[in-house]
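Handout for the seminar on molecular recognition.
Each group receives one record of this type.
Step one: identify the two inputs.
Step two: read the structure output and locate the region that could contact zinc ion.
Step three: write two sentences on what you found, then compare them with the reference statements printed after the record.
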Amino acid sequence: MKEMLQKKLDTGIFYLEPGETPIHITSAGLMLCGRKKIFIDISMEGELSEQLVLRENPDILIASHYHLDHSLWLRRVEKDNREVWAPHKEEGYFSDIEHFLDGTVGYESQLRDQFRTVLKFFLKWEPVEGFRTFSEEKVDLGDFTLHIIPSPGHSPGHSAFYIPERKILFCCDIGVGQYGPWYGWRDSSILEHVDSVLRLRTIEAQALVSSHDGIFTNPYEKLTDLLREFFIREAKISEALEKGISREKLVEDGIYFKSKHKVSEPQRTFITVQDENMLNHHMKVIQEGGLRTFFPDIWQEFEKDIKNSVST
Ligand SMILES: [Zn+2]
């Protein structure tokens, strides 16, 4: 029988992976067993999540942000006598499908209707009821504490989770994997995302735990690599635009999704829209003077890499 894999990170702290489905397709989560038992982002896989909830009987279920691979499980599991927590800034995304569509695909009716159909009929999206919201918060679990750290940018309420007594930082979707950061819906923000990475980089962690790329033992280096990626992407986009390369060509070549031709519909439409959004977010920052204007010290930190990344 399929079962969730539990990897012990420390006493009472477990990394949960869905087993057969790779975490870059679905997502991994955390189980914290202290004075209270907390699940964070368990999995997109409904059956596995339900089994685990019934077996472990957690007190609190937390979604790090509204994206479906992190929140759909809340619709699949038994919630009686459990608290459900969602980010304060994303309250509407959990309760109202039209709010969800506003923030992701926006108002273009054909795409909006298509996404609504996918959500309702394919993914069985439904409002989460009776949840409470969180922003920056500390939860005393007895032997250790859970610090909730808002880390917006990837999404408006995206949050990270830090356990200072064990120096474990669960950075969720901040983007430490091989594909780099993702900010592909309308509600994403590059400036907030960079700010969030800078904040997480100051945290003293020995283990950096991610939703889609496993666990890293060099948090500072991984977060530095991630930061650099924003600057290099911007430099490449600026250079291409100066050379007269069209926006369509940039999207086709991919800001994040480099091999769209390998993907079938309707996914191809959605990843194309996400790359368009990522390009739009970069263009907005470039029009305002570029990342260098907003983060001059960080630009200097990467100056050599940025200059090496472009051909001129
Ligand atoms: Zn996400």
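Reference statements: The mean pLDDT is 94. The pocket of zinc ion is lined by residues 65, 67, 70, 154-155, 173 (CB under 6 Å).
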